[in-house]
Amino acid sequence: MVIVITGASAGIGRALAEELSAAGAQLVLAARRADRLNELNAKLGGQHLVVPTDVAVQSECQQLIEMAVQRHGRIDTLVCNSGYGFLSPVADMTRQQFEAIFTTNVLGTFDCINAAVPQMRKQEPRGGWRGQVMIVSSAVARRGLPYFGAYSATKAAQLSLAEAMRVELAGQQIAVTTVHPIGTDTEFGDVSASQSAGRRPGHVDREIRQSAQVVARRMIGGIVRPRPEVWPYRPSRWALGLATLFPRIGDRACQAMRVQE
Ligand SMILES: NC(=O)c1ccc[n+]([C@@H]2O[C@H](COP(=O)([O-])OP(=O)(O)OC[C@H]3O[C@@H](n4cnc5c(N)ncnc54)[C@H](OP(=O)(O)O)[C@@H]3O)[C@@H](O)[C@H]2O)c1
């Protein structure tokens, strides 16, 4: 299979690349840090295609897809994984900060999909699918977290786009899958903290976390047999479903994260 992964230079994307490469997939590795991608490719044997890409730039997303098609003639799965978090109360953010996170997390996802789907439509089906779009959203797509409001909104936007596209593209044999990790041990926390506007959420005791490898393995399950959603930590799906039905319960659970005024 030919699999394009954005955000392959670290965390979940890198772990996914390692697992998929070991399983024999042909990869196209994208992110801004070319040195990291080249180091990963060398570690994996050097046979994958590295395309330094800033997904916040539309022309770079288009170029990524073009180079993948030029090299392999098809894209079986596009994994839209690039993204970052931003810690701040919503009302204290500047418009530029708000715009920047939407540009990377939402427009970056859209621009890659927009470039890849016309190509997937032309491909011969394999295992019943011409192609698959997999979007790494988050558990917070279903419930906005305090101090992560803008980030949560980008993840909810990704989920909404995927829900619509799944129905729109089903007749064209293109699968659409969203991934909803809980807290995962990657560089995400450090990047979010470095972007922080000063205030941090309160410490939550007994927070359950997963490794990037566990998330990557669950994602591979969703690539081998495409399904609507992958929840690497299954209980979170039910807990967040409940929070959707009873928002006050969700509010109460989030109170522990409130910063003392
Ligand atoms: N870790 C968690 O707790 C968690 C939970 C739920 C969902 N997620 C989601 O999982 C995805 C991966 O995050 P992670 O946890 O693996 O974090 P990470 O270790 O910080 O990795 C983020 C990846 O995104 C790439 N990226 C960021 N901005 C980019 C841009 N403008 N253009 C291209 N690539 C960009 C980074 O590469 P460069 O810096 O080299 O460009 C890096 O490869 C994100 O979408 C995140 O929202 C994470």
Question: Could you please describe the fold and organization of this structure?
Answer:
This protein is α/β, with parallel strands linked by helices. It has one domain: Rossmann fold (3-Layer(aba) Sandwich). It is built from nine helices and nine strands. The chain has helices spanning 11-22, 34-43, 58-72, 95-122, 149-170, 188-194, 212-224, 234-245, 247-254; strands spanning 2-6, 26-31, 49-52, 77-80, 131-136, 174-179, 184-185, 210-211, 229-230. The protein has a seven-stranded parallel β-sheet with strand order 3-2-1-4-5-6-9, with helices on both faces. It has a two-stranded parallel sheet with strand order 7-8. Helix 1 (11-22) packs across helix 7 (212-224), helix 3 packs parallel to helix 4 and helix 8 (234-245) packs across helix 9 (247-254). The mean pLDDT is 94. Bound molecules: NADP nicotinamide-adenine-dinucleotide phosphate. NADP nicotinamide-adenine-dinucleotide phosphate binds at residues 6-7, 9-13, 31-33, 36, 53-56, 81-84, 104, 136, 138, 181, 183-184, 186-188, 191.
